Amino acid sequence: MPARRRTLLKVIILGDSGVGKTxxxxxxxxxxxxxQYKATIGADFLTKEVQFExxxxxxxxxxxxxxxxxxxxxxxxxxxxxCCVLVYDVNNMKSFDNLNNWRDQFLIQAxxxxxxxxxxxxxxxxxxxxxxxWCASKGNIPYFETSAKEVFNVEDWRGRRDRSTGCxx
Length: 169
Prior knowledge:
The protein has helices at 21-30, 74-78, 93-97, 99-110, 129-137; strands at 5-14, 43-52, 55-64, 83-87, 120-124, 143-145. The protein has 169 residues and is an alpha/beta fold. It has one domain (5-145): Rossmann fold. It has a 6-stranded mixed β-sheet with strand order 2-3-1-4-5-6, sandwiched between helices. Helix 5 (129-137) links the parallel strand 5 (120-124) and strand 6 (143-145). The radius of gyration is 16 Å and the shape is globular. One of its GO terms (biological process) is protein transport. It is a lipid-anchor.
């Protein structure tokens, strides 16, 4: 039996403070949810191994603080990222409006080799028409409904049909 290939993938989670980034990350990695909100200071990361076909991927998932005093850390944390997850709270439309800023700042600081084709994913708690239009305008970025509290679509958003494009992701 051939040895399985292992690949490290760096995933950055971005979004306004309080939108649920840490909750989603903890639910995905540890299968735990807490009602206690504790702001991330600087940055934190968790790892999770996932298998896809004959490969094992170690996801290094980075959760970064939104607070202005930590923004200078972005360059160090964003560089070398393989994917960026943008999160907003459907009940906080300002967090949706800030998706452009998060995406733009990521591209400026991460300096990916092909910024037009860098993989972004948007995670939201409910289907909303505005998110569909925004994702379409940014090159059909896939997005998924999620809820860390309800354990909905946290673990298995891969392979789901994206409602905005109809593609299998």
